[in-house]
Amino acid sequence: MASNPVKEMVESLATVSEDTRKAMMETRLKSFAEMPDDKRKDAMKMMLDVALDLPEEKYEKLARTRLQVLMGFPESDQVKLMKTHIAALQELSSEKQLKEMRVVKAILMGLPAESREMMLKMMRELGIKM
Description:
Elements: H1 5-15, H2 18-34, H3 37-51, H4 56-71, H5 75-89, H6 94-110, H7 113-125
Helix pairs in contact: 1-3, 2-4, 3-5, 4-6
């Protein structure tokens, strides 16, 4: 059976230390932000599709780290990456979309009030309902 480098990378991200995961996620998100729109969506969709196959607790680690790293980016990159994330997610199965929404909602409820409000405001502006 052929190996799947995206799957291997995503599984690795879910098992490494938090500091390593943050550094790897930051590198990946920066590279996504620099891609042309169509290439960014395809790359994010491929990773998201694999990541959402992980058990929920492992996926939550990745999603939590993604949101933490994203909050440190310039607002223009945050918006670009969130819009693309949503566009990629909409091309996945309804099961995966529901899993994403469930996990993100749980993460948001665990954030400090100021961070939660900032993320919810940005999501509302992007038309994302929680």
